Amino acid sequence: MTTIVVVRKGRSVAIAADTMTKWGAAKETAAYVANNGKLLQVGDTWLGLTGNATFKTILRDYFGKPKVRARFDSPLESTRFDALVANPHGIFGVVAHRTVQEFTRYYAFGSGSTYAMGALHALYDDPKLDAEALARRAVETAAELDDATGLPLQSQRIRVKSARA
After folding, report:
1. What is the DSSP string of the chain?
2. Can you tell me the distance from the alpha carbon of 142 to that of 69, in angstroms, rounded to the nearest whole number?
3. Sequence-ordered list of residues with C-beta below 8 angstroms from that of 112, at least 6 positions apart, any chain
4. What is the CA radius of gyration of the chain?
5. Which residues contact 92 (CB under 8 A, 6 or more apart)?
6. Beta partners for 40?
7. For the structural domain made of 3-151, what CATH number should be given?
8. In what order do the strands lie in the sheet with 3-9?
9. How far apart are CA 165 and CA 37, in angstroms?
10. d(CA 165, CA 13)
11. Hey, which end of the chain has fewer CB within 10 Å, N or C?
């Protein structure tokens, strides 16, 4: 399982994710797994993926091909994973059936998402916390309370092109 968070605050957005994988009762932590990251960079966009760990490898290969064009008849289209997206245009969610939503403040996916959303709700208006600090605190909260979320975490901050009104 996993916890992935996106936050938009001021002129920046952030994405953060834990690094643990859990299969049943077995925990695969960053101490034992070299490719433990759940964030993937594609150009100026960062993706955080939930679901099967191989999706990151599949998408890295897919987007790594020159001039790739989306094909909706490909095996990739039939996969069922959720993704949170952060880029200079904002923060977005893509769910398994390819519905896309833009979020104005924050959102979380994964097994620890309820805890992460609670932390974000409680902390968002703190003027001392920027988007990345909020995203990190949300994943840290989920790791404390959700047995399928584990530290260390990864995070990225991106400057947005225009402030939201």
Report:
1. --EEEEEEETTEEEEEEE--EEETTEEE-TTT-TT---EEEETTEEEEEES-THHHHHHHHHHHSTT----TTSGGGG---EEEEEETTEEEEE-TT--EEEESSEEEEETTHHHHHHHHHHHTT-TT--HHHHHHHHHHHHHHH-TT--SSEEEEEEE-SS---
2. 36
3. 1, 2, 3, 18, 139, 141, 142, 143, 145, 146, 148, 149
4. 15
5. 6, 84, 85, 86, 100, 101, 102, 103
6. 47
7. 3.60.20.10
8. 106-110, 3-9, 12-18, 153-159
9. 33
10. 15
11. C
pLDDT at 149: 96
Instruction: For the chain, 165 residues long, give each residue's pLDDT as a single digit of tens.
Output: 799 999 999 999 999 999 998 888 899 999 999 889 999 999 999 999 997 776 777 777 777 777 666 665 665 555 678 999 999 999 999 987 778 999 999 999 999 999 999 999 999 999 999 999 999 999 999 999 999 999 999 999 999 997 665
**Which residues, 6 or more positions from 18, have their beta carbon under 8 angstroms from its beta carbon?**
2, 3, 4, 38, 112, 139, 142, 143, 149, 150, 151, 153
Omega cis (within 30) before 66 = no
Distance CA(160)–CA(111), nearest Å, equals 28
Structure-block tokens of residue 44:
């100026």
List the domain boundaries for the chain: 3-151
